[in-house]
Design brief:
Strand content of chain B: 25-35%
Structural class of chain A: alpha/beta
Helix content of chain B: 10-25%
Shape of chain B: globular
Radius of gyration of chain A: 17 Å
Shape of chain A: globular
Distance between the termini of chain A: 12 Å
Radius of gyration of chain B: 18 Å
Order of helices and strands of chain B: HEHEHEHEHEEEEEHEE
CATH architecture of chain A: 3-Layer(aba) Sandwich
Number of strands of chain B: 11
Oligomer: heterotetramer
Mean pLDDT of chain A: 96
Largest sheet of chain B: 8 strands, mixed
Mean pLDDT of chain B: 96
Helix content of chain A: 10-25%
Largest interface: A-B, 51 and 58 residues
Low-confidence stretches of chain A: none
Number of helices of chain B: 6
């Protein structure tokens, strides 16, 4: 069965290594912070200028000057640092952030990603996404395998305006974990009970799958 | 040291010299750390044809969003339109010229502008619409695009405290784009929560040295919260 | 958060992995704010063929100067030779390869290296020996030269205090090149006067966020003064 | 009579306007801080990262962590700020420093300056001088009009390796105050008792002088 948003977030959290600096995009990526495995510590970077983002505040802790990149009120952990936007993106662009997790409209077999614009329909702006995909060491894309009309979001070539080129190496969807290399999606894991055939059918870009593809542990 | 006293007493004096068609660089991220009173003053002045450089354009009815209502802004240079309906509408109808710029590139363009660096190479945006028409150069086999810096006729900045010489500190994440904006204005105006005497701020922890600042004004702030989210768990 | 504990207990561990021919970026200005113990450790290790990036090369017998004595340095990238006789001598005899770099360009090269900016344009050095062979581009009619960024295999940094996560603050003008150096090392080692617990440093006033730092070591410092000048007037 | 070092410094200090940020090089320029006229306040920038440099310390104030760009122990005034070298040169390169005063070996009629190297003889390095001449709004060169062998230091074209090109507009020597423009040195003031003829003789580059050249007030 396809994973829930929470289950995708759980699987994402398994990627983190102890001592990782992690930037989480809005949506499913943000949920991953709730499922970091025991024994693993990560420090969250929020690109508006906060390293060591903590939990949401209680009512009496609310502070308009303390927000995250999603403009939500947050707190800081002990040992956090706060800095300006140029410094924040120096960290990101300079490759000091270990993991970036973000959503996407489309990803293709060459590791290209489109996530910020649907011409004529939706213009939200790229925010920090272009910097993040150009800078982070490991980028994980999380998304549903297909859009709500059933169209595959894993393509031979992205059709929408790109966020970055040749930058995506790992994708975690509601159906599968995939690696992107050599011009193909390589199936690493499948959602419990989901067949390789189903994943193949829902992947428009070239899919490479071994005979035995293990199930995700979520 | 009266020659270094940057404090002005009213908003008219703070924004004196702003005229139609100028470029204004504004600090702030969403509604966090925005110079509320300086924005109101620009609305009051009715200056038009402005190019505004700011990560966001506020929200409908608050922050820089209020300058969209009277069509005072000709062009926005921003990374994020977000949920500002009027911004999105004026963008889609073509009424407003919008140069969408990646957030990190935008911050670096302001910093470079203030630091006398006319352009820098970055991988951000290569191969995307942002990179179109820009000079490409390879370093260590990887392609980068050349991004020009940004300076403004005015920079409007929100700080927490400033001393009379214009030395500023920011509070929490209200820092964001403010320090870069402060360096990049021909005239930099800082609106603060509290003005203190020189010597009260620790020299080693000043975020914006006074050399970048031309005018300081004491403001009052609503500090609206865009997305109030609270902890679900009990303590 | 043990995965973020950067504290190491001895100098051998602090400089573990440094091998012949590597590039080391060092903070400090003259003898002010230099990682004395890390420099001594490099001398002790006897590593040779090093490229050292630092504004100065210490003085004869102190600071980075001690690495010249055993010919451990193959190349210096610096802005100032100054009164270091051994440095000047090795430069003039051609024993030491020296890339003289303007001070501001040097600082910016380190910052750019750490910030993922491979090159930037600056007017500094245009038309001088520094500009020879470099790409020239005009912006607003003025010529600028393209300067590539610098990164190092190691960065050695002196801070005042650091917490276990590697967040650092610097004291007075001992800050100088240290924050830029800290960002530009593949492995960044910080030698500090005092190690504190996370939470003891004010988040808004941290000069170097721990994300740039790999190892922290408690040092002891001589802090030699290069030019002691005192006030002639009485109080 | 030719001005003393102190008198040159006095004349330099007359250039400053109230509220100016000033960077002073080693030597005569540094002395200028002692002669700032009454009613005029300047703030001194030291390129190692100090804005608001104060007097030298008393014995009990000595601090190895508190030095200026000449590596001398100093103090900071109330309202000073201390920052890193990149920030310091952002100020300089970005044109935020109002006046830079520095010494030179040679200056020529095109505003070129040589101040950092004598091939085969002296290699001290350029330090921050190249950044300063490329960045500051007003640059004042102070030097003796001729070297110790009597050779003019105001040339048709610099012979030594340059520090910067087309950047010097004002020169204050022991004999004269000169403006550099249109390919010539324009004599503005002469040292008390020094004739225009003498200055002309000691200026190798083209000198333009009015009939009446006032004496410096020092």
């Amino acid at each position: 069965m396809a994973l829930s948003r929470e289950q995708i977030a759980m699987r994402v959290a398994q990627e983190f290594k102890d001592g990782s600096y992690v930037n989480l995009g809005i949506g499913i990526p943000t949920l991953a912070a709730n499922y970091v495995p025991p024994g693993i510590d990560v420090m969250l970077q929020s690109e508006n200028g906060l390293l060591g983002m903590g939990r949401y505040p209680h009512e009496d802790e609310l502070d308009a000057d303390m927000i995250n990149a999603g403009k939500e009120t947050v707190t800081a952990i002990k040992g956090a640092s706060i800095f300006n936007s140029a410094e924040s993106f120096a960290m990101i662009r300079g490759g000091h952030v270990d993991f970036t997790v973000l959503g996407a409209f489309e990803v293709d077999v060459n590791g290209n990603i489109a996530s910020w614009m649907i011409p004529g329909k939706l213009v939200k702006g790229m925010g920090g996404a272009m910097d993040l995909v150009a800078g982070a060491k490991n980028i994980i894309v999380t998304m549903t395998h297909a859009d709500k009309h059933g169209n595959s979001k894993l393509l031979p070539a992205c059709k929408l305006p790109l966020t970055g080129v040749n930058c995506i190496t790992r994708i975690i969807t509601d159906l599968a974990v995939l690696e992107v290399k050599d011009g193909a999606f390589h199936l690493q894991e499948r959602a419990p009970g989901v067949s390789v055939a189903e994943i193949k059918e829902k992947t428009a870009g070239k899919l490479v799958a071994a005979d035995n593809v293990p199930e995700m542990q979520v | 040291m009266s020659g270094f006293d940057k404090v002005v007493s009213d908003y008219a004096e703070a924004m004196h010299g702003l005229t139609d068609g100028m470029t204004v660089i504004a600090g702030g991220f969403g509604l966090c750390g925005i110079p509320e009173g300086l924005i109101s003053q620009i609305k009051r002045m009715g200056t038009t044809g402005l190019t505004v450089v700011s990560n966001n354009c506020g929200v409908d009815g608050f922050g820089l969003g209020v300058l969209l209502e009277d069509r005072q802004i000709k062009k926005m240079i921003s990374s994020y339109v977000g949920e500002n309906a009027l911004f999105e509408q004026q963008l889609l109808t073509g009424e407003l010229d919008v140069e969408l710029t990646p957030q990190g590139t935008l911050a670096e363009k302001m910093r470079a502008g203030g630091a006398g660096i006319p352009a820098f190479y970055t991988a951000t945006g290569y191969g995307t619409p942002v990179g179109e028409g820009k000079d490409v150069k390879h370093f260590d086999g990887r392609p980068y695009i050349l991004e020009p810096s940004i300076t403004g006729d005015f920079a409007i900045v929100k700080a927490y405290k400033a001393d009379r010489y214009g030395n500023c500190i920011y509070r929490h994440t209200a820092q964001n784009f403010n320090p870069m904006a402060a360096t990049a204005g021909k005239i930099t105006v800082v609106e603060v929560e509290e003005i203190v005497e020189p010597g009260e701020l620790d020299p080693a922890h000043i975020h914006t040295p006074g050399i970048y600042v031309d005018r300081v004004i004491q403001g009052t702030f609503e500090k609206r919260i865009e997305r109030k989210v609270t902890a679900k768990e009990n303590r």
